[in-house]
């Protein structure tokens, strides 16, 4: 928990972590005894291709049924030892596949055959479950053609080193990835977004336009970058409506590496932030349980501590040390129970700190009154709910300790549910 | 897949800057204390009695209402104590105990709790209570009548604003601004010492607890309006410095107009709100029937607060 300064006239200001030459090379985490991978599809009892006991190879596509387009990439060689339904955040139902590792690693040959000629189909078929979890669907959507790909070099949250580290140390792979993307999609306009202090590290080496953004939080949130480039925020159809698509630097590096070596990347860089706030860089197989990762750095987790996937402002708290590292987990942060901030049910006293700190000019003090009363539609219509870029600064400064960010997420979720229910009724 | 350890799960953000309502209240109390202590130094034990009575009864009323309405006990946040202190500081040192009791009832119960407690009051509870007291118990709130038995070594033994209203600027010409600033004037027991109030106000401003825009624009509004009146007819209207240093002006600027619930949060609305408060204060003093206009001016700007706060910057990403 960061403290408010004695002089409270200025609004709190955070800087993103910047890439330094001194950053240590990542610690390789040894392959764990078992890995858990998520296939983002509800689990049905009968899976035609995966059962307990099915042998899998490293880099193999794991699908629940033939011809499924939702898959996971196995990061180890071994046998499936458990399959279970998994309830992810916001009520998403997925399937958790646990694989028991065996000694020698065998690489699945399917991708190397397909890697000869880069195409969108190959990308969609093999790389969508890789590091950074790139989404290729908007690139194939013909109704909303994408004209610009933004490679997102900064980190969306504080304390995280991952993205800039990858960008700094994998320039060749990223160049190869950019080339693959150009060939596969035909999109010429590829922009790399990095914090302005880091620009000189990259310009000239990369085959794309470098777009600096402010290194002050939250100006590197994807929505904030989008707004600074276009002056708009996406409507309900997503970023595709603006013709811009975001990919993380790590995804692009993974794409470049995969096509130049013929092997899929099954490892992921992760920043581990321990209880004292000290950062470690790790490189682990996707699906490694968090416990194995924390053990490597001697981080002890006790009852009532908090483990967070992602940074302190926008991450997700997880409920068990056995949960695995996902392809999009950039950081794992551990908080001691003594510093976990608590929220309260006090009403808003209209102090205005949230309004002054909000980078999106949302009238938070008025919005929260409607959200607390459950009037989500009014909040969206009158008080700019959808201008919120979800940086969490309002909750961070709230004097009444109202869980403002939580209410905003809830409102967006509930409105989304109502809208989809209405659409279903219309059909 | 579940381990034995129980982890805390919550939604982001996982940091908080550590601010809270108790800190705000207690820092405001600390900022108000110099002026209160100066008042006790001038008026002695009766002043101390009024302040103690006001703070304790305010806390008791809040506790009683919390109990009666079966709501969580909120006296610990310091807001009731703050309201009691501010109310006590605005009363004359001679106020009888039952007037103080009624005053804190009006502030805590009528001004705040019946609307739902902290954050829900449409008017500043202290100002509302003083306004009702001023109208209901005119004699007890009359500083000249109340302090008649006190031996004060002030340059004037009548309230400057009352003297101005009754006899015109000539009657207050002999008052030196320095005396007024140091609190050597008849007035509220804690609201007359300008220097202590300014120190407390600046402390609150740099701590970011009150918004400087509101106090500065309130003072500027008062000054400019008083200056215009004075320029138009110096024989009928006092000079602006006199208006700044007498009555509740500085107390209102730093401690009353800035009450967070009833004041706007956006930049331009804060300026409008404060300036209008200052303008109304001088208008009521110079052409109204009341001696001091601060109370009614603040009630008035409390009323326009929701309206002016609609002037706000456009949220990002809005095309239309």
Q: What is the number of helices of chain A?
A: 14
Overall shape of chain B: it is: globular
> How many separate helices of chain B?
14
Measured as a percent range, the helix fraction of chain A is: 25-40%
CATH topology of the largest domain in chain A: Rossmann fold
Gyration radius over CA of chain A: 22 Å
Strand order of the main beta sheet of chain A, please?
1-13-12-16-14-15
User: What's the assembly state of these chains?
Assistant: heterodimer
What low-confidence regions of chain B span 5 or more consecutive residues with pLDDT below 50?
none
Give the strand tally of chain B: 0
CATH superfamily of the largest domain in chain A: NADH-ubiquinone oxidoreductase 51kDa subunit
The N- and C-terminal alpha carbons of chain B lie at a distance of 50 Å
> Biggest interface, which chains?
A-B, 82 and 51 residues
Measured as a percent range, the helix fraction of chain B is 55-70%
For the residues shown, what is the average pLDDT of chain A?
Answer: 88
Instruction: Please give the CATH architecture of the largest domain in chain A.
Output: 3-Layer(aba) Sandwich
Structural class of the secondary elements of chain A? alpha/beta
């Amino acid at each position: 928990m960061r403290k408010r300064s004695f002089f409270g006239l200025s609004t709190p200001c955070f800087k993103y972590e910047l890439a330094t030459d001194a950053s240590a090379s990542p610690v390789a985490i040894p392959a764990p005894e078992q890995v858990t991978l998520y296939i983002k599809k509800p689990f049905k009892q009968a899976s035609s291709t995966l059962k307990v006991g099915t042998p899998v190879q490293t880099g193999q596509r794991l699908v629940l049924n033939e011809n499924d387009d939702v898959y996971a990439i196995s990061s180890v060689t071994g046998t499936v030892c458990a399959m279970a339904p998994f309830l992810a955040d916001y009520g998403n139902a997925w399937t958790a596949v646990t694989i028991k590792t065996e000694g020698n690693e065998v690489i699945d040959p399917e991708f190397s055959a397909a890697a000869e000629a880069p195409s969108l189909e190959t990308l969609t078929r093999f790389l969508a479950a890789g590091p950074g979890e790139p989404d290729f669907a908007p690139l194939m959507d013909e109704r909303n053609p994408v004209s610009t790909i933004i490679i997102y070099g900064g980190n969306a949250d504080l304390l995280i080193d991952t993205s800039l580290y990858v960008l700094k140390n994998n320039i060749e792979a990223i160049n190869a990835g950019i080339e693959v993307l150009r060939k596969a999609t035909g999109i010429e306009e590829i922009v790399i977004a990095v914090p302005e202090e880091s620009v000189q590290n990259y310009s000239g080496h990369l085959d794309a336009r470098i777009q600096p953004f402010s290194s002050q939080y939250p100006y590197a949130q994807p929505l904030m970058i989008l707004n600074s480039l276009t002056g708009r925020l996406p409507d309900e159809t997503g970023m595709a409506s603006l013709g811009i698509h975001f990919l993380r630097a790590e995804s692009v590096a993974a794409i470049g590496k995969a096509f130049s070596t013929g092997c899929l990347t099954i490892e992921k860089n992760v920043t581990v932030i321990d209880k004292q706030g000290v950062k470690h860089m790790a490189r682990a197989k996707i699906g490694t349980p968090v416990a194995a990762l924390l053990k490597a750095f001697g981080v002890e987790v006790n009852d009532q501590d908090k483990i967070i996937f992602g940074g302190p402002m926008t991450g997700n708290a997880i409920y068990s040390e056995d949960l695995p590292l996902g392809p999009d987990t950039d950081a794992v942060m551990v908080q001691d129970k003594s510093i976990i901030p608590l929220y309260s049910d006090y009403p808003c006293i209209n102090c205005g700190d949230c309004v002054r700190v909000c980078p999106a000019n949302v009238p938070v003090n008025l919005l929260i009154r409607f959200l607390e009363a459950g009037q989500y539609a009014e909040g969206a219509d009158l008080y700019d709910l959808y201008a919120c870029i979800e940086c969490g600064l309002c909750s961070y400064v709230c004097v009444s300790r109202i869980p403002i960010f939580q209410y905003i997420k809830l409102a967006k979720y509930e409105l989304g549910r109502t809208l989809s229910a209405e659409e279903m009724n219309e059909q | 897949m579940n381990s034995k350890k129980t982890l805390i799960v919550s939604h982001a953000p996982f940091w908080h800057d550590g601010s809270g309502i108790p800190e705000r209240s207690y820092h405001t109390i600390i900022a108000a204390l110099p002026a209160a202590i100066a008042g006790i130094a001038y008026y002695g034990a009766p002043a101390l009695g009024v302040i103690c009575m006001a703070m304790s009864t305010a806390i008791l009323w809040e506790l009683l209402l919390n109990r009666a309405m079966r709501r969580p006990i909120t006296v610990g946040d310091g807001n009731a104590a703050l309201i009691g202190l501010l109310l006590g500081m605005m009363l004359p040192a001679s106020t009888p105990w039952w007037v103080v009791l009624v005053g804190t009832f009006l502030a805590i119960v009528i001004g705040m709790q019946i609307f739902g407690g902290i954050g829900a009051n449409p008017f500043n509870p202290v100002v509302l209570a003083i306004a009702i007291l001023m109208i209901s118990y005119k004699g007890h709130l009359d500083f000249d009548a109340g302090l008649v038995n006190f031996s004060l070594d002030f340059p004037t033994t009548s309230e400057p604003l009352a003297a101005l209203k009754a006899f015109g600027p000539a009657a207050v010409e002999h008052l030196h601004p320095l005396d007024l600033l140091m609190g050597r004037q008849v007035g509220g027991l804690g609201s007359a010492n300008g220097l202590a109030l300014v120190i407390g106000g600046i402390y609150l401003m740099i701590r970011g607890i009150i918004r400087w825009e509101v106090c500065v624009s309130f003072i500027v509004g008062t000054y400019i309006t008083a200056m215009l009146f004075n320029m138009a007819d110096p024989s009928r209207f006092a000079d602006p410095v006199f208006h700044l240093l007498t009555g509740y002006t500085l107390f209102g600027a730093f401690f009353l107009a800035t009450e967070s619930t009833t004041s706007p949060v956006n930049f331009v609305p804060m300026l409008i709100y404060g300036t209008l408060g200052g303008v109304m204060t001088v208008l009521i003093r110079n052409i109204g029937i009341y001696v001091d206009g601060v109370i009614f001016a603040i009630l008035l700007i409390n009323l326009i607060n929701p309206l002016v706060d609609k002037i706000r910057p456009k949220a990002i990403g809005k095309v239309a």
